[in-house]
Amino acid sequence: MTARFTEDQIDAGRRLFGGPSRFLLGVAKLEQLPPPAGVEIAFAGRSNVGKSSLINALTGVNGLARASNTPGRTRELNFFDVNSQLTLVDMPGYGYAKAPKHEVKVWQAVLRGYLRGRPGLTRAFVLIDSRHGILKADEEMFDLLDEAAVTYQAVLTKSDKIKPAELEKMRETVAAAVKKHPAAFPEIHATSSEKGGGIPELRAEIAGLLS
């Protein structure tokens, strides 16, 4: 299902992300979590899915979220303030192919604790590479979010890298997959951080969570 928005909704998203966005802190342990402050949204995705690029495109601040040169290296929940109205959380990239197993277990415990017990966490956006679709690691994240009863929504990234017909087919495939998950929101966003496609609509989606 494709998300559709009115001009007023698009404008609300533009105004929300048109204000200042800034990095607040990185959290490696649950006891370091900042006090909840209003609506909080989280972005999750495999390493190299384009999460940092999408956050930078949404906020219009180049380099706000920094991509690691080594996929999967980031091991912190990074908190950002958006226009003093929204807290955005960049979750560590998953699919830790090169990470030691004990590190993976520690991080899974941190993520579970954050997702299960975070007041104000309104929605998680799970990023899926348009070229590859849903992989095993994504399904595991879906299951974790279902278990934590956190509403989540799939966002296709790098949509400019495939043909429009292929993108539409991928959107339908992902929509069919998330229907099987109780906590999943049905509408699918397709975005391109490089070309700006879908960014106004995703901003509008997020702005709607504040009302």
In short:
The radius of gyration is 16 Å and the shape is globular.
Order of helices and strands: HEEHEEHEHEHEH
Report the count of strand segments.
7
Q: Helix fraction?
A: 25-40%
Q: Could you give a short account of the major beta sheet?
A: 7 strands, mixed
Describe the structure.
By secondary structure, this protein is of the alpha/beta class. Helix content is 36%, strand content 19%. It has six helices and seven strands; from the N terminus they run H-E-E-H-E-E-H-E-H-E-H-E-H. It has helices at 7-18, 51-59, 101-117, 136-148, 164-178, 199-208; strands at 21-27, 40-45, 77-82, 86-90, 121-129, 152-157, 189-190. Strands 1-3-4-2-5-6-7 form a seven-stranded mixed beta sheet, sandwiched between helices. Strand 6 (152-157), helix 5 (164-178) and strand 7 form a beta-alpha-beta unit. Helix 1 (7-18) crosses helix 6 (199-208) and helix 3 (101-117) runs parallel beside helix 4. It is globular and about 40 Å long. The two termini are 22 Å apart.
How would you summarize the topology of this molecule?
Blueprint (H helix, E strand, L loop, with lengths): L6 H12 L2 E7 L12 E6 L5 H9 L17 E6 L3 E5 L10 H17 L3 E9 L6 H13 L3 E6 L6 H15 L10 E2 L8 H10 L3
Could you name the key traits of this structure?
alpha/beta; 36% helix; 6 helices; 7-stranded mixed sheet; 211 residues; globular
